[in-house]
Amino acid sequence: MTEMHVSQIEGITVVKLVGELTHVGTPSIERGFILTIGALERAVVDLAGVTLITTPGITLLIAADRQLRHKGGMLVVTGVTGMVEEVLLDRCRLDAVLNLATDVPAGVKLALGKSQ
Questions:
Q1: For residues 109, 14, 31 and 25, what is the CA-based torsion angle, rounded to 10 degrees?
Q2: How many whole angstroms separate alpha carbon 60 and alpha carbon 9?
Q3: In terms of C-beta density within 10 A (0-12 exposed, 13-18 middle, 19 or more buried), how is residue 20 classed?
Q4: pLDDT value at 116 more than 70
Q5: Most CB atoms within 10 A, among 40, 47, 74, 105?
Q6: pTM of the model
Q7: Which CATH number fits the domain that encloses residue 97?
Q8: Which has more pLDDT, 116 or 3?
Q9: pLDDT grade for 114, boundaries at 50, 70 and 90
Q10: Domain range spanning residue 83?
């Protein structure tokens, strides 16, 4: 089962996702994720706890990024390692599309417009 945990760091909402962002796992957090991101200008999505990502998860991230950019905001994705890194960066080359940071503190700095 995929889980979503929301917290605040320096006024930036951090959405930590845990589990698999697949056709099975994504629907369990999709509504809450969309509502949370939709209410924000800037957010950090932490994928450190995500073990697998497929098309539904990728679509969720791209849609969230597009939604915040449309409002003049920013989505930062952190914790991209292992299989998730292979899919997002090596296969899909989403590093050219998404704002990436190594970890949550670096993501918060980027979202705040501070130099890393």
A1: 100
A2: 23
A3: buried
A4: no
A5: 47
A6: 0.95
A7: 3.30.750.24
A8: 3
A9: confident
A10: 17-112
Residue 2 domain-assigned (yes or no): no
Cα–Cα separations (whole angstroms), residue 60 to 11, 71, 109: 23, 17, 23
Q: Does the residue 5 lie in any domain?
A: no
What amino acid is encoded at 24 in this protein? V
| Residue located via tokens 């629907």 | 27
Q: CA–CA distance from 57 to each of 28, 29, 84 (Å)?
A: 11, 10, 10
pLDDT at 115 over 70: no
Closest by alpha carbon to 84, among 40, 27, 25? 25
Is 7 within a domain? no
Q: How many structural domains does the chain have? A: 1
* CA of residue 70 relative to chain centroid, distance: 16
